[in-house]
Design a protein that fits this description.
Length: 246
């Protein structure tokens, strides 16, 4: 099976500030990768490099077997950034319109066809937001907005879902339901890359953990992560560890 993402010796600095140093990481199709590390450790930067939003200073990036420069299947990737919610708040659009955006990659500048409308309805049903279809995105809770953005990714037939702290500001019950949904999507074969500051949540759910602090300290299954000293090394004495219950 083709790997979903392949990074080799990726380095990137914002001016003088190194954000990633020699990071090599392969994400297999179907994997659920939890990306952890203290604040400012390069997690969002790594996601941005993977998705082609930032070009690394050195190293190579492949998506689904293609060098990122020649990868033109953007619809296969759904990105729910930390800023999605803020943007959603600024845009006067309904939930259904947001989900329809997921079909644009398939219809170009043309109008949505019956099959596109079906895909939009199916995606909204899948994440349980059909009853919110006509609501302004700005009127929704954070958790509902995140589900709308996931529905947009599903409508575009995304194979890879990248999420940057999707449940910040979401209450505990909604968060559990949200992660239940991610588990289901992963069971259905969607590759998931999740940045989440609560380490307990990540190690309970992910099949692989990447622990980062500019350099990659550990990459492996949750068990090998717990057995390693990566957590202590990556977090040092920053006191930022959240939810580490082992
Ligand atoms: P994380 O997502 O783990 O919190 P980031 O990838 O956002 O980490 O940031 C990694 C490092 O790069 C930090 O030192 C951060 O201050 C710096 N950084 C992030 N974005 C920018 C930017 N746009 N300009 C300058 N420095 C940045």
């Amino acid at each position: 099976m083709t790997d979903a993402v392949r990074l080799e010796d990726v380095s990137f600095a914002y001016g003088e500030t190194p954000a990633l140093r020699d990071v090599s990481l392969t994400i297999e199709s179907g994997e659920f990768l939890g990306l952890i590390g203290p604040n400012g450790s390069g997690k969002t930067t790594l996601l941005s490099v993977m998705l082609g939003l930032i070009e690394p200073d050195s190293g190579s990036v492949e998506l689904f077997g293609d060098p990122i420069d020649s990868f033109d299947d953007g619809h296969r990737i759904g990105y729910v950034s930390q800023k999605s919610t803020e943007k959603g708040t600024a845009m006067p659009v309904t939930v259904e319109e947001v989900v329809e955006m997921g079909r644009y990659a398939h219809v170009g500048s043309g109008r949505l066809r019956a099959e596109d409308r079906d895909a939009v309805q199916a995606a909204m049903e899948r994440v349980n937001i059909t009853d919110l279809a006509d609501r302004q995105v700005s009127s929704l809770s954070g958790g509902q907005q995140q589900r709308a953005f996931i529905a947009r990714a599903l409508a575009s037939d995304a194979d890879l879902l990248a999420l940057d702290e999707p449940t910040v500001g979401v209450d505990a019950d909604s968060r559990d339901r949200f992660y239940g949904l991610l588990d289901e999507l992963n069971d259905e074969g969607i590759t998931i890359v999740l940045i989440e500051h609560d380490i307990g949540v990540v190690t309970d759910r992910a099949s692989r953990i990447a622990c980062l602090n500019t350099e990659l300290y550990h990459h492996g299954d949750p068990e090998s992560f717990h057995e390693s000293d990566a957590l202590e090394r990556a977090y040092g004495s920053t006191g930022q560890v959240v939810g580490h219950h082992h």
